[in-house]
């Protein structure tokens, strides 16, 4: 018989706890529970820091195995009164909040961590307050558990994913005065999401089940869920740590967001210049929307810093560093004849540098009147926006080739012999193996959902006797998006980075629908939105696998979240557009409201849809934007050849594998948007986390790195929501904080640009 100090396996029937290879069990640790089952009394068992391994995580995907537990209790209830009530309520709440963020100058979003924290607070409160005796046990069946919690998170985060359809509908309203019937608009939003969901289901074998598909941003979500719900002294310490960090950022974040906005972008160079020189503003400014690209600008606002996921993303890209040089040289050398235009903007401009009057060249049917075009002239883009579009297209071309070169064995394994249509049995992921006890969602469910949603989408594209997008075009661009979803899905699953494809779709649609800006805009629903909805659904399916939610329960949660989100996305969008129309149309916007996302769709629809041949055909002003896709196909090839020819395991071979050209290309063009004060803070924090802590402090990294990310995201999201409604005007008029040195009246918030 083993001595009490000898580490042994848990008794039969007892689930494996995280890092249990270093835990010893004695008879007093095991007790019979009320229904005769034997369980570990984790509260009486001491788990110390030494129980967490100090092995350095070398491969990115090993995070999912080293940091996350594969523990599962199949008898935990999932769809309870608590989970349904909170799931519906939080779905409505987060869909409203995410819609508000769409019209903000900061590129903010509602994170799953925000949904997770609110759900935990409310779920545990309901368990504490509601009776649990007698018939009440059906409404309050024990402590709020991890599976209830995850289902609520999946529902609310699905609802919070802003549909591209909502943005397109807003653009039609703002720039074309086309107002869709509310029922048609809501069905359009829902259908465009569900098409992506159908594709996601068919890609599970490739982009959900395997270990390499680990979705870095989701590690912190699952890590927090397990810390909140798994017992033991170690998790008690992690919960306490989480709430301390959460409270600290909650009370800090309102300072840079409201009374002291200078702290959102601290630039010593801007402070010294004090708005006197345009060059300084362009290169170093970063405090206000479309001000500058933020070289050496640091932020103390986690709301902005979190956009870079510095504690989560693998240390992968040099693209942004190249971008500072490329954008500056291109603009000051008058590339694309944009020297006399604004430094940053997604809007269209006329030959004198003013806003382009698109209505002056369009007929009542929203097609080009060429006689009017001759007098008005062609529109122009800012140089930085042209560079950005080129880089995004470079990135897409590189992503396609990168996936085929580096992941061909995985593609062959998934699609060879149509194996993706049936569940795979040769996947060795420990989380996937635990899921084998549950009934899988049949592939025909996803196929039916895909076909039905496509039919609804086609029907909703017909408006008042005219096709916004012909049926054959809906089918064509959906098919193209299916192929692209595989490529960008690999990039997102293995690195966490999301490749931008909308410019490529706009270019392609410009030649398919020449002279029809509304049709080109609508292509985004099927050529662009479908791929991104596929990614969103794949990530939630992976979350369900990590937390051992039965696949059919995950399916139901995603469907419910999409329906609720579609309704509230639309209703909140209508309110914001009605109350802030002038700010949303203005190319610069305000510090509170900005239509930069919607303006981007409109600019593309006019420049590419109405005037694609005049602007993007070979030899025309912006032809490199279109051809960038084909040039990007070449980017990964040299690095792949070097990796193959260099000695295996050498520094050169590893270096070539480490450079992911789609990501590098993407981030060269990532800067000419919105507010940029956060990126140097992201660089420093990311280095400390993913390089220093991961290699020098592996115990801390495994226990607290992702938990820290969760706490910072959660606390900052909660306070930003409160501020949005309290003082930023989400529900009415904004309340400005009095001007002072840290909140200047005639300068941008980082004191780098004059505003009067």
UniProtKB/TrEMBL annotation:
GO cellular component: membrane
Pfam families reported for this sequence: OPT
GO MF terms held by the record: oligopeptide transmembrane transporter activity
Membrane topology, record value: Multi-pass membrane protein
Broad class of where this protein is predominantly found: membrane
Region (Disordered): 1-30
TM ranges: 79-101, 113-130, 150-176, 183-203, 215-234, 241-258, 313-332, 444-465, 471-493, 555-577, 622-642
Keywords: Membrane, Peptide transport, Protein transport, Transmembrane, Transmembrane helix, Transport
Cellular compartments annotated: Membrane
Domain of life: Eukaryota
GO biological process: protein transport
Family affiliation: Belongs to the oligopeptide OPT transporter family.
Protein name: OPT oligopeptide transporter
Organism: Trametes coccinea (strain BRFM310) (Pycnoporus coccineus)
